Amino acid sequence: MAIPTPVNGQITDAVTQVSVANMGAAPALASSLLRQVWAQAMGLQMQNATARQEHDSVIADALLGSAVRRLNQGGVGDDTP
Asked: Block means of pLDDT (10 residues each) for the chain, length 81 residues?
């Protein structure tokens, strides 16, 4: 153990104050971290929804092009691909 001096007491008090401050700030930090993670998850969800709509649009365009090509090649009722 350290020899009790005025400096040792000041160091102990400073460390104690920092520890108490950290314990007091922990709930606020946890709450802000939770909100930040939630916001990130919602942003990714919106980005995925937008990408899905874009991919669906590309597939729909390809299907429409294929249908128009079939109509122009053989007309309605023709079974050839």
From this structure: 66 70 77 94 97 96 94 70 57
